[in-house]
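Dear support,

We are seeing what looks like truncated structure output for some complexes. This example has two components. We would appreciate it if you could run it in full and send us the complete token output so we can diff it against ours.
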Amino acid sequence: MQRSTGLLVVTVLGLSATACGSGEPAKSSAGGAAPVSITVACQPAKSAPKERQAWDDDVATFMKAHPGVTVKSTDQQPCYDPKTFGPKLAGGQMETVFVVPVTNYNDVIGQGQALDITPYTSEIKNWNDLRPDVRQLVTKDGKVYGVPNVHYGVGLVYNRALFTKAGLDPNTPPKTWAEVREAAKKIAGLGAGYVGYGEYSGGNTGGWHFTQAIYGRGGSMVTDDGKKAAFNSPEGKAVLQNLHDMRWVDNSMGNKLLVGWESLMMAMGSGKVGMMLGAPDVVTDVVNKFKGSVADYGITGFPEAKASLSGGEAYMINPKATPAEAKAGLEWVDFRFNTAGKGRFDFARGKALGNPVGVPDNDVYGDSATGKAIKQDRTANATLPVANYQPYVDAAATIPPKAEPVHAQELYAILDVAMSGVLSRQDANIDSLLSDAETKANSMLATKG
Amino acid sequence: MRVLRRNLTAYGFLCAALACFAVFAWYPMIREFALSFQKTTLVNPPTWVGLDNFLTVVQNPAFGKAWLNTVEFTALALLCGYAVPFVMALVLNELRHARAYLRFVVYLPVMLPPIVAVLLFRWFFDPGPGLFNQLLGFFHLPALAWLDSSSTALISLVIVATWMNMGSATLIYLAALQNIPPELYEAAELDGAGIFKRIRHVTIPQTRLILLLMLMLQVVATMQVFIEPYMLTGGGPEDATMTVAFQMYQFAFTLQDYGAGGALGMMLMIVLLVFAAFQLRLTREDKA
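Here is the complete output from our reference environment:
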């Protein structure tokens, strides 16, 4: 009976989103336009008082600059949660402006859960400076459904302190998978509890990292037309073989399966894991949420990378929003998330608040004028050892981004099995695991069309 | 009229209870039934899709495995969760000292929030410094991978479930045992029955109805196993702990396919209804 209670609790939590209001009701604008009220997601939690205050200050500044617009913030964490997303929409509790990670763009747009904002993109002043490939990710059939505000590629996050401890040079991180294996062996050799290389194996994160790895090796998850699985390939086999050998031949991956995002992040934050695949935001999260020591972490390019799985997020508008709400929502997005020197790009304020500044975790504007201004401002106000991230920055510029496959979450669930197979069984048959996964994926793709 | 007035309070309570059931139990069941034949994004009005959702569910690669795992889990959980509490209740019933204290100790795990209990076991099962491997090491036995091996993951979840739910079952069995007239045992003893004969010929027949009721309740509860795989294994490794309820959750909240989630929920409900009907019939025949 406790089990059904648990399921019920999860469902009820999913259905109940709490809105924490901020902001006084607005009067109509000087031009006489009707007052409009919007709710915006992603207010920092109360446990981060400085960031929350900065957000509230931004809300106040925005409302002053936009008479007639009332902004109410919600602080649900995480901002986007697939468990609560649909129920919130259905229950009329979805914010006017909400964030969606790149892994869910296809689902949200495909299911009509985001408004077509093509007529409103002019509200984003720097719209044309956004990278075209990133804008393409939120575009379907010529219609725009979101405003990207974060974009990055995958690299290799590593613990510089452990590299030094293991007799490795942290300034020359691994560039090939052979070098990764050697470094992992040395780190694991430091003693009990040390893990050279950490990897996911469940909760869809295993399949997600498999995708990162196979893209890096030049492989694909699905055929170009998206109708057949393409991961049962030399690149796919190389991904699993490498993991199998690191786990069972080198014994450099520890003896614990890591299921879900927090598990590996927690392990990384503990300071006993040497390397993992990850984007620059891993450094920020490991430091901010998992108590990692900021000076210890560096990031370099993906080993032997031929392509990089795109990561990031975009703000989208509630499909039930009125035109006035949509316009006001996009003005907020423009102000808070897409203007150099303002909101999330106000690095001087971030520095004053004591936030970690300097991680190259956002390339959404590329080398455009806005992008250059953001990078310059970030470097000028850096509080972190930016030299630790330079290998990643240098490598990222040369690696082409690659989008999520169609039906990504379904494919990730299928590939979780293969990942957990090689990491939990010494006698795992890689050909068989990939072949089974291919059969399942083809069946799923045929059903989904 | 007078009768009605006299029973007004009772009718009031009845109406309130019916309203609660209608809103929180029957209406969601009807909605789920409808949902299982619909395609919905929860934004636009749903469309009727016939049996498509059931087809989606059946064609899912983990569907068969989820049912097999659920049946295996239920069988193992019953083996442990049915027998262990009954034996525990028999022992407690025979004790003359520290009975209240031991009853409290046995019931204690039930008072822990399930999430806390499950997280506790995450540490117990840790293949490195975990308690269970330390115990095995103490007896010079090889360490196990517990949750991290497809061969031991499911049984590890059974251990958690048994520990979490044993207390309630034990107390219910104990109450049933204490209702058995002592004269029956005295007569059996006079006839020369030993302890096992007394259990077989007195205890089990006298507690038969409770045993059958508990069997039904436990099957219904264990078939819906969710928290353990959700918190401990994510359904892995290699789908070894994928259960029907967990897959239902994945359909609805990971893949946002609410129709498929509803369809799988309907399938599980039908299976449980059939089992409950079968069990009730057996009980009736038994009474007759």
